[in-house]
Amino acid sequence: MSRTPGNPQQGGKKSSPAARRKARRFAVQAIYQWQLAGANLAAIEAEFRTDNDMSKVDLEYFHDILHGVPREKSELDAKIEKLLDRRLDELTPVELAILRLGAYEMVHRLDVPYKVVINESVELAKTFGATDGHKYVNGILDKLAQRDRMVEIRGPRK
């Protein structure tokens, strides 16, 4: 479980937001592939690293998400399912992959602000999802943030 910040990239540098965004973009595609084909995660990761230009991608973050989502699938699905207006299996595979990724970050990557998790997931839904899928993703992850990130949402008391 990754509740602490990920290791900085090589050379002691902290990962840039753009490198993380690219990691999420590849991770959601890899998770989608895993959901549909059930292929071995190591094989999927190797395929993505071979077939794509990963030079500006936070590879540690990509690895964490790609392996973390399947590892925590039962927990993530239970959290998501409580917030849905339909059954989990009625979601499109793209929406499900994005919601799992967003839920994983919301629950297991506390180093990522909840607003970033929501915004990045919405952007993924705009890119890969159905026409209004981003609105649905936004609503579900906002509700999840209300449950799992209340301390962060309320902020420090003055």
UniProtKB/TrEMBL annotation:
Gene that produces this protein: nusB
Cleavable signal peptide: none
Domain NusB/RsmB/TIM44 positions: 21-145
NCBIfam families per UniProt: nusB (TIGR01951)
Name of the featured protein: Transcription antitermination protein NusB
Family the entry assigns: Belongs to the NusB family.
Function of the protein: Involved in transcription antitermination. Required for transcription of ribosomal RNA (rRNA) genes. Binds specifically to the boxA antiterminator sequence of the ribosomal RNA (rrn) operons.
Keyword line: RNA-binding, Transcription, Transcription antitermination, Transcription regulation
Native organism taxonomy: Bacteria, Pseudomonadati, Pseudomonadota, Gammaproteobacteria, Oceanospirillales
